[in-house]
């Protein structure tokens, strides 16, 4: 009888430890998120399940073209791509991204822009001065984010610059649905 009781106690301890570890991993290291809407097409599709690495920016800073999850409102997180970094001037003219006046390629958009080139603009022209806040360059601890589907995305053009404090983490792993499993490198 004492042996059975000891086994039960061991099982309960193991389950409590496993639950505690799962909580720590989810709260501080990794969390699942589901893409909601078309704003990141063609890179991400509505319903893609992804893993957010919450730890990545604890030891580093966002890089250009990172796909990040951030708190857009108290109740809603958004997934967008980092385009502009602190100290930079950002503008888009004729579907071309300019950082500090230099043309920067966006390889994740190339095929989409070429497809639309003859009929319409993919990204309406703007510069950082046109965004909420009317900055001349991105201040420290802020980034400019855009959705890949520029015609259908609520991003920095509407929300303004995003504070790095709002960023939950970086994401680049799609784990569901099975036919879309991949790591995004761009």
UniProtKB/TrEMBL annotation:
Entry keyword set: Hydrolase, Membrane, Protease, Transmembrane, Transmembrane helix
Domain Peptidase S26: 8-176
GO cellular component: plasma membrane
Subcellular compartments: Cell membrane; Membrane
Enzyme Commission numbers on file: 3.4.21.89
Keyword Iron-sulfur assigned: no
Primary subcellular site in the record, as a coarse category: membrane
Active site, renumbered: 39, 80
Spans traversing the lipid bilayer: 12-35
Gene3D superfamilies in the cross-refs: Umud Fragment, subunit A
Membrane topology: Single-pass type II membrane protein
GO MF, any single term: serine-type endopeptidase activity
Reaction(s) this enzyme catalyzes, per UniProt: Cleavage of hydrophobic, N-terminal signal or leader sequences from secreted and periplasmic proteins
Gene Ontology biological process terms from the UniProt entry: signal peptide processing
Presence of the UniProt keyword Membrane in the record: yes
A Pfam match: Peptidase_S26
Similarity annotation: Belongs to the peptidase S26 family.
Protein name (Swiss-Prot/TrEMBL): Signal peptidase I
Organism, scientific name: Aquibacillus halophilus
Gene: lepB
